[in-house]
Design brief:
- It is built from five helices and no strands.
- By secondary structure, it is mainly alpha-helical.
- The two termini are about 20 Å apart.
């Protein structure tokens, strides 16, 4: 992502870009860490997603939170907060490409679903670079 020249490492300018990216995420994390615990609770996470413009059911927010909150004690770490938000944003962007009329619904065939852009989000891919199955 920050290895712009695809050299396999990042130079100083690329590192500065990475540092800025992480600093921006840290600022967001701190903004929603209302109790200043150093972790994001489910309630704080829900508020963050709402502030980002998502209108998701509490059931789905809970599912997403529990997927990334690894400790099991209602405390999501900074790195997992960033990861969950980036994955949700990527999924949103892919979904929008299929939601032509912007009504929040898409129609895909089963094969489009399995071979399309959604498959990486579920831990498998049937297309690309000779890989099949779980990746």
């Amino acid at each position: 992502m920050f290895d712009a020249d695809k050299s396999g490492s990042i130079n100083f300018d690329e590192f500065c870009g990475l540092w800025g990216f992480l600093a921006a995420w840290r600022s967001l994390f701190d903004r929603f860490d209302a109790d200043r615990s150093g972790y994001i609770s489910l309630s704080e996470y829900s508020h963050a997603l709402t502030a980002f413009g998502y209108r998701l059911s509490s059931t789905f927010v809970n599912l997403l939170y529990r997927t990334y909150e690894k400790r099991g004690d209602d405390s999501m770490s900074f790195d997992l907060f960033v990861q969950s938000c980036i994955v949700l944003k990527r999924m949103t962007d892919v979904f929008k490409r299929y939601d032509d009329d912007r009504d929040g619904y898409i129609t895909l065939s089963f094969e489009e679903f399995l071979t399309g852009e959604f498959s990486p989000f579920f831990g498998f891919s049937f297309v690309g670079e000779g890989k099949r199955g779980y990746g």
